[in-house]
Amino acid sequence: MPKNNDVYSVIVPAQTPNLTAHTYSSIYGGSVGCTAIINGISVSVGAASSFDLTIRSISATTGCFLLGDNKDVYLGSPNLP
Question: How far apart are the C-alpha atoms of 71 and 77, rounded to whole Å?
Fold first, then answer.
């Protein structure tokens, strides 16, 4: 899902993603960072850093946050045009 003006409608801890209700397109390292397996690849995310990609799967990890949008097309996301 493309970003809309660098604004996300959802932020959740990386250890509790809801891939059924949300699409995540960025991971943020928070204050401590983390190491996670994202889409089958081990990735280290530094503190206060972020990068953009479509997150289809992620291992349970603490310290990072996932940013994205709601999948609900009925209620929708407030950021979609």
Answer: 8
Residue 60's pLDDT is what? 87
On whether residue 76 sits in a domain, the answer given is no
Q: Record the pTM.
A: 0.84
Give residue-wise pLDDT tens across range 3-21. 556 788 899 999 999 999 9
| Cα 73 from Cα 14, distance rounded (Å) | 23
For residue 79, the model assigns a pLDDT of 59
Is residue 49 one of the residues assigned to a domain? yes
Cα atoms in the 13 Å half-sphere on the side-chain side of 52? 8
Domain that holds residue 64: 10-70
Query: How many angstroms separate the Cα of 4 from the Cα of each of 8, 40, 41, 78, 80?
Result: 8, 26, 26, 10, 7
